[in-house]
Amino acid sequence: MTDKIAVIGSNDSVLIFKAVGCDVFGVSNEQNTRVALNKAITEYKVIMITDDFAPFVEDIIEDTKLSSYPAVLVIPSGTKVSSYALDKISADVEKSLGVNILKNKEN
To answer: Using CA atoms, how far apart are residues 92 and 94, in angstroms rounded to an integer?
Structure first.
């Protein structure tokens, strides 16, 4: 398992990460996403997956939370408006700390 970072998402979303030295996996459907994530799990300590493909592999992401590595993070794709990534991060923060420090004060 390498210390490098893998990023999984549409080609448009992940190219910028390649420019900064991350290994990228361009995917276009559920099958490619499952294959890419399963491969990345065996090779990387940190994996970022865009929020437009994360729902396809939510079961695998939940299974990875049972071990220290890899850390799988859901990130915004930037191609559409979605609260999926923020909702996942908020849930993880609340689970870890017992309180959601990211919650908007108005809510």
So the answer is: 5
